[in-house]
Structure formats: C-alpha cells, structure tokens
C-alpha cells in the first residue's frame, strides 16, 4: 500500500511540473518550477529529468519548455474526443448562417480551453488557436461557472477578487453573482466589452444527453460590425447549434 501511495504522489508531482510549464508562454527555470509547485529543488530536478528523458519536457538555454511528446497526445485528443469530433461541422454551419466566428470551449480545472473554432469571413481583431486558455470570471467563461456544481462554484467565488473588464468597469462579486443567476434563468449570456473592448459575444451551455455539462458554444462579433441587438437575434440559432451537438454525443 505504501508503494502505491508513493507512486501516486510521484505521478501527481510530475503532473504538477507539466502543468506549471504548460501555464506559461516562456521557458521556465528549475527554480521557478520548484517555487511554483512547492516541491523541493532536488525532487523537482529528478522529475524534470524523467520528463525530459521521455520528451514531455525539453531543456533549452533559458529553461524548460514542453517537449515534442505532447504533440501526438494533442492530436489523439482531437481524434478521440467526441465533442472535438462533432463540433467542427456544427460550428461551420453556425458561422455560415450568422457570418460570425463560432467556438466551443470546455472546462479544464479552474479554466476554460478552446476545443474548436470557425472563423467568420470578417475576422476578429484577435485570433485564438485551439488550446487557448481563458478564465471563468469573464465573458463566456461565466456560463461554465454558472452551471458548475454549487460547492465547486462557491469554492471559486470564495477567492474572487474584482476584475477589471476591457470596458474599464470593475466587476465586483455581487455583479458576477447577478450574471451567474441570469445565465441560469435565461440559458445564455451576452457579454459586451468584457474580455476585449472591441468585441461582444453570446454563449450557451452544451449538455450531454444525460444533462451533464460538456462545455460551451459561442458566437463572437466585432463591435464595429454587429450591434448588441443584432447579436441577440442570433441567440436562438446558437441554442439550436448547442442542441445539435447534444444530439450527436
């Protein structure tokens, strides 16, 4: 039993190291990884050595980055995950119908990750690659937060600090809770200048056939091209697209 527990701790620690490196856009040093994970320097060095040996991490003059072994893992996810397989055709039809950029996100730990995206003919002022990580407190992330289990949601809100939105407004906890309640009542969320001052979006949940939350689907527009009222008219189409995904799961 002790050996099993030790193996479990070793696996957890190795995953902590991988997640630490994944969370940055720059190489990370041994000391930075040790500090971020709370692991002893010698333990961190040993784990990194094993991960480098297996090509999950790569050593560079500036620190450690993810290694090439993660690429076939990402490719396998796209081929194996049912939502990732179903989403592209639904998003393509949704964008064709609305002429707006459409996306599907899933929750990973306390964040959301882009699984699939279809760009509109008139592209947004910013581009997101598949795998882009965003938070849960702004924009479409609120839909995932609104439909989280109550205990989980309250855990996240307990550490919440006011967030400066792109509009310049400071979003406090009461305002966030009001948005979450509205999402549960209406079934979608329309955000304007929250994450990006030049964009507005409408987001709906994606449910599995047994009513568990799979992710979110959204439409995003440039504020110079689409008004809030025009975007809101697409909400019924967005909800239909969400149901089409559910039907194929």
From TrEMBL:
Asked if DNA-binding is a keyword of the record, the answer is: yes
Keyword set for this entry? DNA-binding, Transcription, Transcription regulation
Q: Where is the HTH iclR-type domain?
A: 8-68
The record's section on SUPFAM superfamilies has: GAF domain-like, Winged helix' DNA-binding domain
Q: Name one GO biological process term.
A: negative regulation of DNA-templated transcription
User: What protein name is recorded for this chain?
Assistant: IclR family transcriptional regulator
- PANTHER family noted in UniProt: HELIX-TURN-HELIX TRANSCRIPTIONAL REGULATOR, ICLR FAMILY, HTH-TYPE TRANSCRIPTIONAL REPRESSOR ALLR
User: What PROSITE patterns does this protein map onto?
Assistant: HTH_ICLR (PS51077), ICLR_ED (PS51078)
- Where the record annotates domain IclR-ED, the positions are 69-249
One Gene Ontology molecular-function label: DNA-binding transcription factor activity
State the organism of origin. Answer: Brevibacterium casei S18
According to its UniProt record, what is one Pfam family this protein matches? IclR_C
